[in-house]
Amino acid sequence: MFRNGQYQIVSMSLVVVACIPIFYKYEKKKLNIKELVLIAVLVTTAVLGRFMFYMIPALTPMTAIIIISGICMGPEIGFLVGALSAIASNMIFGQGPWTPFQMFSWGIIGLVAGLPWVQKKLNQSYLGLIIYGIVAGLFFSFFMDTWTVFSIDRYFSWSRYLALLVTALPYTLSYCFANAFFSCLLFRAIQTKLQRILVKYDIKK
């Protein structure tokens, strides 16, 4: 598939894709400072969640906060919180060519959580949150393993990719557990506070 020299193209393409929702959202309507502040607070909360649990590999509430942001605020803000949380938290943990892959994967997780039919299911029961948390953990792990393949071989190798999936299984299971656990633990509390803020400051999703 991808050969030498295309690795950089893939990384830059992901950066461009991750920026599209930002331009789309703020080009189609007037800039809302209150909404920007709320997004900044959600990003800060997600980054703090990753920082507080950095001693425990793959066990962090960051993805759960991104999921909840998507459910409560819609797909665009869900993507923004995911992508911006990746680049902001990497100012602490280190930026690198893996950052675009993290921006895209966390962004997609937030975006899908905010899609109306997914949002409805996740709002209905904790079972939906558990299932989506597991799916999000699998997606993040599987997608980030593509970066690992590129970083080792400089091109995509299916044999290397499958080997990485097997060796990364303990981390993948940790991602899934953390997402499901923290989503259920934090969802109602964050949802209630966000709803109050949206009403109080007249912020439209």
UniProtKB/TrEMBL annotation:
The chain crosses the membrane at residues 6-24, 36-56, 62-88, 100-118, 130-150, 162-190. InterPro entries: ECF_trnsprt_substrate-spec. One of its GO terms (molecular function) is transmembrane transporter activity. It comes from the Bacteria. Keywords: Membrane, Transmembrane, Transmembrane helix. Gene3D superfamilies: 1.10.1760.20. This is ECF transporter S component. It comes from Enterococcus rivorum. The lineage of its organism: Bacteria, Bacillati, Bacillota, Bacilli, Lactobacillales.
